[in-house]
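Technical appendix A lists one of the benchmark inputs used to test multi-chain prediction within the project. The record comprises two sequence entries:
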Amino acid sequence: MRPREQTISVGGIDVHAWTGGQGEPLMVLHGAGGNRGWTRWVEQVAQRFTVWAPTHPGFGRSGDAPWMESIDDLARFYLWLIDAAGLGRPHVLGHSIGGWVAAELATMSPRSIDRLVLVAPGGLKPERGEILDIFYHPPAELRTLSVHDPATIPEWDELFGRAPTAAELETAVRNQEMTARLTWKPYMHNPRLARFLPRVTNPALIVWGREDRVVPLDCGEQYRRLLGNATLSVLEKCGHLPPIEQPDTFARLVIDFLRGPIRP
Amino acid sequence: MKLYYFSEMPHHEFPDEEGAKYPSLRLDFPNRFFSPEKARANYQRYLDEYEFADRAGFDGLMINEHHSTPSCVNVSVNMTAGILARTTTRAKLLILGNILPIEDNPVRMAEQLAMADLISGGRVLSGFVRGTGVETWWANSNPVHNRERFEECHDLILKAWTTPGPFRWEGRHYHFRHVNPWCVPLQKPHPPIWIPGTASPETAVWAGRRGYTYVPFLVPFDVARELFDYYRQGAAEVGRTAGPDDFGFLICAVTADTKAKALEAGRHFMWRMGPTLRGPVEYFSPVGMRSRAGTQFAMRARPRSLATMSYDELLDGHYIIAGTPDEVIDRFAHVRRELGIGHLLLEAQESRMDHPTTMRSIELMGAKVIPAMATG
């Protein structure tokens, strides 16, 4: 099933989005690396859900938002987008900073969304260890630190197998700049988020790679404790990018969770 | 042409092989290699050299500020300016400069500069800089906001200096309910403002519009001329014609009684050309700090990094000038002819250049070079 690309105008910003699939709406919020589009795991999840994968303002082909200051701003923006795009009450899945956006958004308006999937989200300060400073490392080093073993990644060549074009490099810089705008200080976390997470009692699945060297698994345990109705699923031999490191396992987890019974 | 004496106040007091173990001497090199005992003596020595440069006849004493690096342990230009304001009598105090984007309280900065201007009897030349990425990391200031904060901090300082208080400031990055500094500069309307440049065309245009003195640092002559053209473009926008007094240039320079001694001393500048600038690009230019235009200009402006140049190449390119007073006079005159500048800033001490060598260089500059350059 081929996805389509569209532009959703919200608050004066043209948001680029991939949309496709069938079933209940699932909004997918990407990480700092940008919107990778219709990758293998999305293809599988879209068999059961209508996937809406917007590109954050300031990233990729979406319009600029130099006025945004924090992940809260982006979360408020997505609550507006849910209304503007007529998504009803979608499931929300976010990865890395997208997971942080999803968590913030859920605390602001838990009834606006259905189930929540947080994949190695930032947002909480680890009790042990530190979140990797992604701005301090050259891109190649960062990629190595992001995954457990490139050799096991089925889409590695497709995603990273060739040198980026000038346009892709420009997009990568733009993505990084917007990430810096939103997450620089306090770095990659909101000291107040933990206070609000207990408000969220939506069924939630937290997915983490055991070998995540970007956001410590410790944060996943915090999310599980703080959210009212959450399960933590830890993938072995997996780093910070479960959706592309183990796409089939990840897609299965997501489908089973979103279609599964509500836990008491 | 006016000459300015400048020392980075280096702290090269550790075994080089220790520094080489880290990705960079900046940010990463642990401060357990900082020696308070050595620094205690060095600060006295460096201040003595500045004071001697004042007596020797330099037109100005330039001071700068860096953080988290042994290349420069002058960690507060305004503190140093306060000391020199009191202990020197005639040279201008060229503060080049205060790092505006990482400053959280521009009002306090305006007050400190005003106090140095008052104590010195109106000798402050107030340079404002954006800082390197290292300072941005040090301050944990968002690099994406660097230019915006530079401009807003500048605007607030200027207003604090020139507009009677109290007034309120509600900007994007700075918010002050009551701005009413009980310390304003002696010089009116305010101390002259200087802006350095290495690669940003926007900065050159911006300085030209405002009539600030503009000083490229250690760039090839053709790049300096191009930046001066950007400056003139900004000046023309406001109907102003730029002249030599609007332009300066920074090089490394040392003189001695013999050419051999001068060349030996000049080798100390090699440390600031390579080892102290070593490190990942992310340290010096974190994401968002430079505009696209600035990044593109920087790539053109420095086709070869200074670190890849030999000592002879750096001498040939006038990045370093080292010779007898007569030779130095010839080289300075060449720089003046090439660039049409009114101010030459001399980084005149570096690395492990010793005190007697530094003092003799200052003495010879004062006795022979400064008088020769004063005309024209």
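The first strand of chain A starts at residue 4 and ends at 10. Residues 197 and 227 of chain A are 5 Å apart (CA to CA). Comparable benchmark entries are summarised in Table A2.
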